[in-house]
Each structure stands twice: as structure tokens, then as C-alpha cells.
Structures
1.
Amino acid sequence: MALLEIENLTVQFETASGWFKAVDGVSLSVNEREVLAIVGESGSGKSVSMLAVMGLLPWTAKITADKMLFQGRDIRNLPDGERRKLIGKDMAMIFQEPIASLNPCFTVGFQIEEVLRIHMGMGKKERRARAIELFTLVGLPDPAERLNHFPHQMSGGQCQRVMIAMAIACNPKLLIADEPTTALDVTIQKQILDLLMKLQAEHGMGLIMITHDMGVVAETADRVIVQYKGRKMEEADVLSLFEAPKNPYTRALLSALPENATGKRLSTVSDFMASGEFAGESR
């Protein structure tokens, strides 16, 4: 049984000119101990798809799906109380902008201990000990002292580690990482990716990696879904995708990588689409 199984997910937002489909009929699944990468340009519906699964989109969004199962349980119309028990405990998400996602009015220690209080029912001493353990696990220096810091007192990389610690605090079965290395320097990016893969292997989590970076895909994923304008263009295991991409859009993404440049000027996805080969069909 798949850990998460989604069929024909559609997400629409109302605009002045009518309803806009941000996600258009996307289907996917992820198993335990598997890393699924969802890749595509900004605006391709990657994050919106997962925010819909997590129940974190505005109430004005129109979300439909033929199937949305987590461990065989239908989560499409969960009551708010049941969803709150699920989200953050069995299913967790690392957001794209950690500093913006953390509450600036509370210390990071208070915020991670709140997760442990709500979902695990831990007492004060137990929460603090677990928070220190988690901060040590994600590589934060002086973890006991770090608990007393506010988000603005920490670097972007440190805030990202706090977000990871919060996400794994309750040993979730599924972890969704939304562009976890965006806006971080190259050295910190590598550290964060290595940390995520280490935690995923040690805890046996299913991991969904949302990214536009094909290098991250090659380094982390077992399977890959390529999205464009809210639609799934292609799905394949990572080796097949890089060696023999079937969809023109996937080939466009790969041809835009610096290592695949064949001329003086780097190709872009727009160049490829302008050639007439890309017709927008999904596979």
C-alpha cells in the first residue's frame, strides 16, 4: 500500500477573469522509504499540490480529487480536529522560506516545544530534553542556548535546520520538503540535503522533494514527476528520466542545465518550446 496516493488532483483559485487552474489533474503516489521528487519551473503547481494535500490553502481555493489517501485513509474531507492531529505528526512539511514560516514573536525553543506538547503530550522537562536532542540531530551548535533565540537572531541556514527539527519532531511517516535549499549558499545547501537524506534513511520516512533544481533531483530522488503549468508531463525513475526523457518539456529542462550546454549560449526552456517540438501533452 502506498503511503500517499492521489488521483486527479485539481486546484483552482478565483480571479477577476474567472477560475484559474493552478493544478490540473495531477496523480502521484509515494511509498515508505522512498524519495519522490516533483520538479518544474516556478508556477508549475508543485507547492500548491502539496499544500492542498496538507490542507493549508485558503478556504476560497476549490480543491477536487478522485482519490486522496494517506495510509489508506481518505483525507479529502477530514474534520478540522482530525486534520490537526494528522498534520505535523504523521505528515509534516518543511516550507520554502524558513524565516517567514517561523513566528517572530516566540523563541524557536518555544515553537518546537509547542509541537511536542500538542502532538506528543510531553511535559515541560521532557519537551526541553527532546528539543535539545532534535537541535543536536540537525547540527545546530550550542543547542540548549539556541532554544532561547528568536528567528531573527539566526541565519537562514540555522532557521532551515530549526524547521527540519520541528518537522521531524514527532517522527512523521511522510515528510514534504518544499525547495529546502532555496536562498542558501552552496555549502549550506549541501549540508541541508545531506541532513535530509540521512534523516530519511534513518527514520524510514517517505520523502517528497519539491524543487526546480535538476541537480538536487539527481542526487536525492528514487522517482521523479515533472510538472508544467499545473499538469504532470512525465513520471519515471531517476535514472530513466536523465538517460532517456520521453516528454519534450523534460528534455527542455535537461538541455537548460549548464553541463548540457552545446554552444556559446545556454539553452532555455523558452528556446525549446519555440522550436515547435513541445505541444504540452502530458505522459
Note: Residues 279-283 have pLDDT under 50 and may be disordered.
2.
Amino acid sequence: MNKDFWTQLKSQLLEFLFEIGPELVYALVALIAGIFVIKFVMRLLKGALKRSRTELSLKTFVESLSVFLLYGFLFFVIGSILGIKTTSFLAVFGAAGIAIGLALQGSLSNFAGGVLILVFKPFKAGDLIYVNDNLGFVEKIDILYTRIKTFDGRIITMPNGNVSNSDVDNRTMEKYRRIDLDLKFSFETDLDEVRAIIIRGMNRHPKLALHLPVDVWLDEIGEYQMKIKARCWIESVEYWPAYWEQLEAVKKELDAEGVTIPIPKYSINREVPVGENV
């Protein structure tokens, strides 16, 4: 009985191999050929991305997504050769997609945000941005997270889902940025004289954008003093050093010309009760 069982099993196995043998050979050939084709396509894609000077984060994302799609198509072709129905493939991928989507809702949101950032480029690595109450230079843009480095040396990692849904103030996207200095003077100060002194001081800055205006205007008349706004333009990457340098330059120029910035004065009047000796 055992001998008949093994003989029957051997017969069925051989029959199965003869029946599916050609498909296995074709599938193996398709797998080997497909791997070589994928490697060739990826080599062409990497060369094209390199020549286009695509940003590193976007390049990595495109390469990873391309590999996933190409191998997915290859497995679909192999499954079709082996006789697996297309509807089965779709059902498996659909069920897997739903399960992964439910398990990784936050990560998918960050993934979608990363795609939007890499495609529309509201900022890039090296830009100074203000987002979610954080100001810093963009260190790295991953597909899920963005890292910025603050002026005091902190690294802040933010989910791309939050970043893509927030207002992003990119302070280095434009080449030039305007410096605004708010200065206060007494009403006795000669406005034209002060304007000439401030402009002279600001014009001495070596990195000033000479093709853009340096101007000084009376901005506000208060109760006890007048407010003057002095403006000039500088390259965006030099903004903060230039801001402090221009503030010092204006102060030194005013000191050299003997113009002082008013100090608020307060008068205190004390009422003396009747009969008290003063």
C-alpha cells in the first residue's frame, strides 16, 4: 500500500512538472531578463537625474519609487506567465494597500507632504525658513521629515505633513532682502540733516545692493518724538549680519555728527498735604 502511494505521488508530481515545466522556464527567463532590464533602466534614469541637477532628496525619492514600480510590474508579468489571474493580483495589492494605509496614516500624510515639497519646492536645502514658530536653515529634506538648524545650533525635525500644510516664510528665496531700521528723534531734530547722515552711514556697507535704493522717511509722529524708518537692500544670505552692522553704522554716524537719540523723561509731581512742612 505504501509502495502504491509513493508510486502514485511520484506519478502525479512528474505530471505536474511536465504540465507547469514550460511556464516555470519562461518565468525564470522573464525574471532574469527583467532584472537586467530594470538595472539598465535605473542606470539611464540615474544618469538623466544627474544631468538635470535634480535636488538630492527628490532624486532619491524618484529612484526608490521607480525601483518599486518596475519590480512590481515584473512580478505581475511573472505571475501572468505562471497562470495567476490578474484579478488575484489586484485583490492582493488592494488588500495590502488598505492594510498599510490604515496602519500608517500619519506616515502616509508625511509621505504626501514630502512629495508636495519636493515637487513644488517652496524651499530647498540651505534656505532660511520660518515655519511653525521655528526659524532656521534647511539641513535636509527627507521623504517623511524636514530638518532645520536654528541660529543657536538646535536641529529641529518636523513631519512633512505639518510643514506642507503650514505657511512657510522662505527668507532666502529672493536674492535681495530689505533691512528696515526704526529710529526715534526729538521734534527739534532737523529731518533733512538726519536723513543725509543716515544715508551716508548706510552707504558705507561693503555688501550693499547698490542698484536698489537707500531711503529714509518720516514714518510716524508720536506724542513726544518722531519715528523715522531707514531702509536699504542686502543679499538675503547676509541679512542678519548686515542688519546689526547697519544699526551700528547709523549710530556711529549720528554720534560723529553730534545727533542724539532722545531719552524719555518723566516728571513726578508730589502734592503736599495742607499743614505739612516741606
Note: The radius of gyration is 36 Å.
3.
Amino acid sequence: MTTTDRLDRIHRLSERARADRDDLDAILDAASVGTLATVVDGLPWAVPMLYARVGDRILLHGSTGAGALRHVAAGAPAALSVTLLDGLVLADNLYNHSANYRSAVVRGALTSVPTDESDAALIELSDALIPGRSTEVRVASRKELAATLAVELTIAPGGWTVKVRDAPPSEGAGDPDVWAGVVPLRTVTDDPIRAPWVNATTPVPESVRRLVSRE
């Protein structure tokens, strides 16, 4: 078995693996932060990054001054890992405590978005995270675009894995006098907070109102 074969499938608790592309897309679309990992000069490198899935592409961006990001943009093998923690699973013993989660890993080589397409890619990334925001702000300057590195990771067949747990705790000893169950977890938006330099009379824009009200 080659290294690629080992990475292409879930081996431990394989019954939790999901092979449907729809499951992958649902996880990627539900989250907005993933951990991008690679090896730089023989040393492990991992950093959390905002991302957005647009079709078969995962868009990310960072500073052109980030040497490790330039390294992966030049074609170094990389992996993006995303996890959604849906609940803490409490059993009647610590050994069987667990968590309900959805996780995905996408592997491949990142490529730089061409300079003449970087502005459009950054708009796609922004609007995937906050739909409509790009129409409410000024356009990026040439200096800002020159300082920003937009990269993309293509979702390819066999280049990803998904693992999901969505179940109650194992029975363990089945002691009815010890509480066991699931504590659901979720991320919610709160009331938006105006920046100190924004006029108090400036209304909250539509994109932010939609973001807050979609709970």
C-alpha cells in the first residue's frame, strides 16, 4: 500500500467515513476557518486561515510577505483540515466520553491565482464569507492587491477524506443512575459592534444584517 493509498481513506473507525462529495461540500461550506499544513525546509508548518469553497476551488489569501505561503503557492504539497465540533458526548465513564463532529481534509498543491484574476478571486472569497459585502465597500487599491497573495486548492477526486460522528454515547456499564447524553454545541452570531471611527448614524449594511439574522 502506497502513502497515497493510506491518505485516501479512513482507517480507524472507518464506519465514520463519508464518500459523498456533498458531505465534503457541506462541511467546507459550514466552516470558514481551516488549518493549512505543509513542510517548509524539512519542518512542519501549519496555520489557521480563512477560506471559502467556490465550486471545485478552495480560495485562501495572505500577505505576499509570508514566505511559507509563497512556498505552498509554488506547488509544495499541502493539506487543509477543517473540523466542526457539534457536541460533547458524555458517557457513564470517562473512557467512553467522546464528541460529535464533522471533519474534512483536502490535499493537493496550491497554485497562485494570476495577478489579473486576484481581485475577482478576493471578491469571491469575501462574498462567500459575507454575501454582498463587496458591493458595500470601496474597491481594493493596486497597492493592496500587490501586497495580497491569493491562492487556490483544487478539490480533486481521491484528494480528500471526510469523517463524521453523530451518535449518543456508548452504553458502557449502562448505569441508569449516572447521567449520560450529548451536549450540543453551535456557533452563533451576536449583535454587530460598530467600529469607533464610524458615525453613529451610519446604518448597519444589508450584508451584516443578513449575516446576523440567518441563525
Note: Helices lie at 3-7, 21-30, 67-73, 115-129, 142-146, 206-213.
4.
Amino acid sequence: MSKQLRKTGMGLAVAAAIGVCTGTQAAVTIYDQDDTEFSVDGYFNAFYVNRDDKVADVRNSDVKMGFLPNTIGFNFSKEMGGLTLGGRSSFWSTINDSLQSPTDTSIDVRQLYATVDGGFGQVLIGKDFGLYARSNIFLDELLMGFGSPGAATGVSFGNIRAGYPYPNPSAQMTYRTPDIGGFQFAGGILEPADTTPGASSEQSMPRFEAELTYSADLNGLMVTGWLNGRYQSSENATTEIDSQGIGYGLKAALAGLSVTASGFSSKGDVPVLISDAALASEEDASGYLVQASYTLGANRLVLSYGETDSDQGDFESENTSVAVFHDINSHLKLVAEYNLFEQVVKSTSMTAVDANTLALGAIVTF
């Protein structure tokens, strides 16, 4: 990765998945001269998916991408007058629409930002993932897996709405401190969501998000902890909605064993993602995710369980997964995952989703 990207920490979900947060590099440097660097990274995957939908009483076989879409990213950095100017643009594409759009596909740009690094830390301007719930998702042991059933388009949701919400890629201006004894703080202003649509709707202040992380090597015990949050307000002539949330977590790894526990608590939002959508009231939501993994040679076994309880979204969900990751080499990985997901409508106690999913996939990175 470029010098600029290494300083961004967990600013890149794919990079976090393939090991940037542990120091490995997975990019191809195209140009590196005169204090200027340009590199490209990629993530490609496909899964055979067999799902037993117990509510609809149907079983389907599909070929889909995993929780992370297929991605290609372009990175730039240049040293100028004691500063490092950087930038990243990443393109995320689905393979799930191959029969609906045979010669076309959906592409979205989740990252398009510039950075300025110096002794003071880093300033990021542009579009990037949010800070609230950021580490909750990027340190998910199943980030490179398949996960729970998601949208009607066939996109899997991983542990979104079964342990954590999604840190929406948003327009933002964010500051990150240097690493200070293992601690790093990030805080920023982001584009606020219109949760009270109407002619008189207003968001007089930006959305505020922040995250504090801590990483340390305690005589071979690798520890990472985090605390993040969000606040915003939207109002019209009759309604004011304050949306706020706190996320937290701890990950500890010793030798081949890793244990992760995270959670969140929010109010005034549906704990899937924040968007321009009307909310009639400020209801509560909470969730947690516990995971354990063990790595032996080229194999990594993951056990995962998560829950979310949302009054705002009127649902309770739980997600159980077991997965095995096998490294053929540093750029090719095989995955076998079995997932059990259930979601209940709180107001009626009716089961909305009850699905068991087997996913067998391959991942190529560079």
C-alpha cells in the first residue's frame, strides 16, 4: 500500500480484510519515483450459495459474491514540503445481477477522497466509510465470508443487523491524530441524513462522528480496543429526530487464537444504515457480536454469533456462522461457511426470515 494508505489505519475495508491493519501489503505499485507513488489493489470473489428459506419453503442455488463486493482501488501519494498528499478512489461492483443486467453491472464508488498527512496527523476530505461502527465491521472475523441474507438484490449482509450497523460511505471532513502510545483518535463532520423529510425539513448542523482506538502488543498478546459514536439532528415543522449511537469492542489475539467481542447502542435510527428516510419517533436499538477464531498453518476456523434488537426497525435478529478459510497462497483463499439467520417482527412475533445458507467460495487479492 501507499504511504498515505498505511497512515489511514482502517480506512479501507478490503485492505483491512486482507491484512493492512496487521502490516501486510497487498497492492501493485505502478509508479514510485520522485517522492510520488501510484498503486492499484484488487479484491475478487465468487461463492456457490445453497440457501434453505424455511419461511418461503424453497431452496435455491446461486453463484454470488460474498459480503465484500469485487473491488478495484487506485491509490496516490506525493511528498511535498514536509507533507504527504494522498488520494484514493475505489470502485465496488456486484456479480449478482448477471441475469438481470447481462451486459451491464452495478458499480458504486464508496471511496473518493484526498488526504494530507504530517506531524500533526491526517486530514481526509471526500467520501469514505463513516467512523461510527467502523471497527465493529472492519474487524469482523467473517468480513471475507458470506454472511446473512440481505437485500432483495441478493447482496449478503454479513453481520449487519445481526451485531452491528453499516458505517455508510459518506461525504466528510475528518481529522486523525498520530498514533500516541497505541491510541489514535478520529473525529469528523459528515453529511447529515434527512430523517424528517418535507418542505420545511432542515439539518442545521452536520453529522458528527468519532472513534478512539487502542492497539498494543502485551508480551505477545495483541490487543485492539475501540469506542466510536455518532450524533445528528433533523427537524421539520412538527418533528425533531435526534439520531445517536455508540459502538465499542475488544479484540485479543495470542498465537493462533483470536477472540473478538463488540456491540452498539443507538437511538433514532434503524440499525442497518443511516439514510434520507422519514422516522416518526426516536426508538432504541442495540446489538452485540462475539467471535472466536483459531489459525493453524494455512487454515483459519471461525465461530460467530450476533444479535440485534431494534424498536425503530421493529425486528429482532440473530445470526450464527461457522467458517473455514484456507490459504492456497498469499493471494488466493478458499472459504467454506454455514450460516443460520433468523429475524422476527417484534410487533407481531411473526418470523420474517428463517434461512440456512451454505456458501463455498474463492477469493483472489492483489
Note: The longest helix spans residues 13-18.
